[in-house]
Specification:
Layout lengths: L1 H31 L5 H12 L8 H13 L1 H10 L1 H23 L6 H29 L9 H6 L5 H23 L5 H31 L4 H7 L1 H20 L5 H23 L2 E3 L7 E2 L8 H34 L1
Antiparallel strand pairs: 1-2
Helix pairs in contact: 1-3, 1-6, 1-8, 1-13, 3-4, 5-6, 6-8, 8-9, 8-12, 11-12
Subcellular location: Cell membrane
GO molecular function: electron transfer activity; oxidoreductase activity, acting on diphenols and related substances as donors, oxygen as acceptor
Family: Belongs to the cytochrome ubiquinol oxidase subunit 2 family.
């Protein structure tokens, strides 16, 4: 049953990045959209993500519940030593959601709309930034459970080149996913062309940010690149991600909505899979070498068995319901 819980944990993290990432990325795309096209872009984004944007946070909630119930030691270390980036990420989620609602449902259209737009766009940037910083901090090896000062215990684990570079990489991923998704929803030729250009620019930014991640890893003594390319399994996965990049650029702008989205999702999934496979079963790399893995930190016995069954039963209802939710709103939008 432990493997069932681990599979659901990995699936929840992946889906939160892909679905929630495309959601956050809408604000990032808005930041780089020409002013004259922003109103059209906002309308398309609202019609596309408006009905389902709140459902995307389900995967974050599932991740938190799995860690809290199934891996309490990991949950404790994360919530204590990374509480600052966690708090900033949550504030970004709250600010973004609030601004998203007010700028569309506010009965009075006045100067506050400009404030809502600013909060929405910059919260959309801040949230994936700190999500990536948290992920980078988990494998940077700077979390010290025996720290004696505030800086070494709560600042140093995440305020370094490597976690920040992972944060910027995550921002680029989210913007790229959103641009690809919105590109398929645009009927207007001008805005569709703008989304296509943004998808290409953000894809280039993702590649550059990925290179910065490897550079930051080398600076901080994390041999990430060498270990990924010397492992035959992770090397094959990275080659598949690279091949998908070529295919993606070929199909961008060819009005292949579903295929382009699948390739983009595959590319990001392969990158995450390569890194995850490299570190598995370790979930947090601690300073000093006493790593927290999904094996040695699991709550064995009844908690993990009960959690596993709850996830299996819940998955029977949640996953088909989510698929139908997305399908129904996409269908209604195409009919209208």
């Amino acid at each position: 049953m432990l493997y069932v819980v681990i599979i659901f944990l990995c699936l929840a993290i992946l889906l939160y990045l892909l679905l929630g990432g495309a959601d956050f990325g809408a604000g990032i795309v808005e930041l780089i959209t020409p002013v004259k096209l922003r109103e059209k872009m906002r309308t398309i984004a609202y019609e596309t993500i408006g009905p389902i944007w709140e459902a995307n946070h389900m995967w974050l909630i599932i991740t938190i519940v799995i860690l809290f119930v199934g891996f309490p030691t990991i949950y404790t270390v994360l919530s204590v030593h990374l509480h600052i980036p966690l708090l900033l990420m949550l504030l970004g989620i709250i600010g973004r959601g609030t601004a998203f609602i007010f700028r569309h449902y506010d009965a009075v259209k006045d100067d506050m709309q400009r404030i809502y737009n600013i909060i929405f766009t910059y919260s959309s940037f801040i949230t994936p930034l700190f999500l990536g910083i948290i992920a980078g901090s988990m494998i940077a090896g700077e979390i010290d459970t025996n720290a004696t000062t505030f800086y070494s215990g709560y600042i140093q684990p995440w305020f370094n080149y490597f976690p920040i570079s992972v944060g910027l990489f995550t921002v680029s991923i989210c913007g790229f996913l959103a641009a690809v998704f919105l590109m398929g929803e645009a009927a207007d030729k001008e805005i569709k062309a703008a989304f296509t250009r943004q998808a290409k620019v953000l894809n280039i930014a993702t590649v550059i940010a990925g290179g910065i991640v490897f550079l930051a890893a080398e600076i901080e003594g994390i041999s990430l690149m060498r270990e990924l390319v010397t492992n035959p399994f992770t090397l094959v996965i990275l080659l598949l991600a690279t091949a998908s990049l070529v295919l993606l650029w070929y199909f961008l702008g060819k009005n292949k909505k579903v295929l382009t989205r699948l390739i983009a999702g595959f590319q990001i999934s392969m990158i995450l899979f390569a890194v995850g496979l490299h570190y598995f079963p370790d979930f947090i790399i601690l300073k000093g070498g006493n790593n927290l893995s999904l094996y040695n930190s699991a709550a064995m016995g009844k908690p993990i068995i009960t959690l596993g069954w709850a996830l299996l039963i819940g998955g029977v209802f949640i996953i088909p319901s989510l698929v139908y939710l997305i399908y129904s709103f996409q269908r209604n939008r195409s009919v209208s």
